[in-house]
Structures are given as C-alpha cells and as structure tokens.
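hey team, just a heads up i'm posting the complex here instead of the shared drive bc the drive is being weird again. everything in one block, sequence lines first with there labels, then the predicted structure for the whole assembly after. its two chains so it's a bit long, scroll down
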Amino acid sequence: MLAGRLCRGEQAAAREFVDRYYERVYLFMRAIGHDRQISEDLTQETFLRAWRHIGQLRDGKALNGWLFRIAGNVSRLHRRRFKDKGVVTMDGIEVAAAGGDGPLKVGQQEQFDHLQQAVARLPWKLRQAVVLHYMEQLTIAEAADAAGIREGTLKSRLNRGLEALRKEVANE
Amino acid sequence: MATQRIEDLLKTLARQGIERTRPGLAQEIKDRIPRRLIPTRADLIGLIAHLRINRFAAAATILVAFLVVGGVLGGREAIGKQMFEDSRLLLQYTLGGQNVSRSKLLESLMRFRDDMAAQGREVVYYGDQTNSSGRYAIVMYWKLSDDKYGVVLGDLSVRTVSGEMLIRLQSHMLQGEAKK
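-- predicted structure starts here --
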C-alpha cells in the first residue's frame, strides 16, 4: 500500500505519490476557481504540506481524502489571504475535445463554460463539495473526509449546490 | 434544467476537462521532496492527551527541575552528558512506562545525585530505602538556598519546599516506616 510506504518515509513512494496525484490536485485547484499559475503554486504547496504532515497518515487510510483535505485547506487559506486585495483568479478550464468522451457538440462548449462560471460563483463550502464529489469524483465518504465534515452535511451541501447551479444555468 | 442534468454535465465536464498541466510541474514537486522523509509523530500530542496527567506532570516537572536546578544553579556539568539519556528515559516513562521501569528512572536520579554531590552540593537520596510510590515519601532532596529544598516525592513529582515542610515530610516518612 502506498500509504504504508509513505508512512515509512520511502522516497520512491513519495515520487509515486506525486505522479499519481499531482494532476488531480492541479485540476482540483482549477475547478475550485484558481487560475493556472496560482493552481500550480497551490499544487506545490499542497505537496509540501503533505510531506510536513505525513505523520498523520495511517496505513490503509484513503490517500484521496487526506490529500484533498490538505488541498482544500491550502486553497481556502489562499483565498482568505487575497480576497480583500481584489485578486481575480478565474479563468476557464480548457475543455479538451480529445482525450475525453469524444468531440464536443456545437453549443456544448458554451454550456460547459456557463456551468464552470456558475460553479466558480458558488459559495466556498458548496463549491468545494461539488468539485470534490462530481469533478474529482471522490465518493461521498472520501469527499466528506476531505472537507472535514459528516457525510450527511456533504450530501446537504451537494443538494444545495446542485440547486443553485440549476437556477444559474437556467437563467443563462 | 433538471438537477439530474446538472449532475450529468458536471460528470461530463470532469471527464472532458482534461487540462494539461505544465511539463515539468511533477518534477518540480519531486525536487522538493525532503531528503529525509521521516514521518513526524504528529499524533504525539494525542498520545499525551490519553496519558494520566499525574504521570506526565511528574515526569515533566522532573525534566524541568533537571534543567533549572542543574543549569541555573550551577549543576550544568551534572546534567550535560546524561541529559539526553535522562530525557529519553523520562519521555518513555511519560508515554506509558511499560518499557522503562521505575528502577531505571531512580538510577537516573542517582546519577543526578552523584554529580550534585561531586560538586559539593547538599543532596540526600532515599530512593533505595523508600521503595514506595507513596505520594509523600521522599525519594531525594537537595538544598536550593536558605530554607529552600528541592524534593522528588514518591510519585516522582518535584516540589520546592521549606525546611519546615521537609522535616514534616521526613517525619511522615519515618512514621510510615515505623508502621511497617
């Protein structure tokens, strides 16, 4: 188990851990609303914190929840630090035609753009829940662990988030 | 638009939204992996929280007494080389005591006594005779200043007491011995 090897401080495990998760952490940062440069910085910061807190990791525990919890905290701290300075960090995620489920239909790109913007406008707690579960595709349990909340609370946030998105997209 | 449709769109977005990361990002992250990826015992505080506070307080006060009495009052040499060993011993004792017998801890106190005595300090060690964890039994005492004494009690806590209180403690201990 990778978690066990990380607990033992194996360098090879740390490199494997980076390979397995760095893109997901980066995309989490992008989906949560940071621009490319900030997302890269915050991805690096997430891993630095992971090394620092590797003692909290337990063999057998899901790495997903643990790492995305760190990533969520890093993102939240960044936003808190810069929210009063008028720093705009939003730009859309490029939706790849290739590598996904095939070419996008006409109008689909526009729909995705609207959806991304709507996600970015959600309050932090709702956005985090939506991104973790739907976009990072963590299970309810993993996403709740990552957000540091109960599963019931996460489900409630997901419902509220989806309802808010439905209204936003319907109005556009 | 139905909520189900939003869910489907979000899932599709997750699959389609594969934005390429900058080449070299992974390597930059790997370059910052600490050379010694030693797990930090972040759960140490949690462990301590589960300990009986008396044991922790006792070991901690002994440790502080070693530092303060030995360092400030001129016994730096007394604690120098043994400090690390004694600290380790006390920490182990604090974190459960299963690996450190009381006798080992008393041995550590004896070393402290010997070093203090070597410097001409007034120090009395009862440890062997006490053989008791009685709260008011004196394991060791030493003079700090006029009418002030440092005392290690049976529960291995460290107190500063007056000369009068020291006599009362000694009397209490003698009475206990007499009853046996």
